[in-house]
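Give me the fold.
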Amino acid sequence: MTSPFTSLSRLAVLASVLCVTGCGEPDSAQEREIPVAQAERRDIREEIRLSGDIAPAFQVEIKPEVGGKLREVHASTGQDVKKGDLLFVIDDSDLQIERASAQVEIDGARVSVEKLAGNLGRARELFDAKLISKEVYENLDADHRLAENALQRAQRRLETVDDRITKTRVPAPADGTILSVPVIAGQVVVPAVSVNAGTTLATLADISSLIVDAHVNQLDIGKVTLGDSVEVLGGADDSIRTTAKITFIAPLATTKNNVKGFTVQAVLGGDTSAFRPGMTVAIRLPLATATDAVSVPLGAVFETRQGRVVYVHRGEGPAEARPVEVGATDLFHAEIRSGLQEGESVLLQRPDDRDS
């Protein structure tokens, strides 16, 4: 994989156009061909820059547990609701007919149980008096038990129907704001079951708590840890700002826009009134800072077998390959912690006669 220092060294041509202080008139062919920069002191802030989307910390799709025609819609987009508020009513006409049928079945089963219970009581007296056989008595006892089972089944059926009727009234599952209502009264809805996703009646979210969802390149994910603070910027000129704290780092890499990385979520803090779900924002994750540090352009730092080096230019003779310790870096400069002094000149391209 190409080092960022090697790839960014191609920007050295730009540095030559800027005419870095101390360039002067070239004295040799090497000076004429290779641009030079001076080590200078500056403040460097190393950070990861990302883009992300604002989303509610809690969001749920409301789906029916029973199917049918929507009779009433009490939810509207942007509406604030409390847990238990009635949002939708599904027509229960068919269920009421089914309930009446179940009730008739119960009444019939109860009459049968009572009749067989009386027959069984008389048969027990006759059996005790040895006036009927044991087989006749046991058959009457079995018929009675079967009738009791039928009564229990009818009662369970009624309970099931009553439960389904209750579910025709769809309440809010939690406090929040209705984000969308993609259905209208009169529409036939499908229940959410194991083999069917069901019809989405509404999307409910708690927008008082927002998160930012970002995708971090696999090369940078090692620099991100739970609890890190990030800066979130929104608006056309990044004028809307707040902070967020990283609360989730996905354990498995995914590919987004042909880039493999990891999903990272951070909870927004401070004033979030200017942020809305669905907004795209910029994210800055600070990694390191260096104040008044000796630094050189990124294009002046090269990777070699011996480590990172700069080529110090002394005016005459070949440039000196000098090992350096690199600290914080930004998009343009690298902090040099050791190996180079302020004011020394370095080459922005690797000399042709050096071993790469």
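The chain has five helices and 20 strands.
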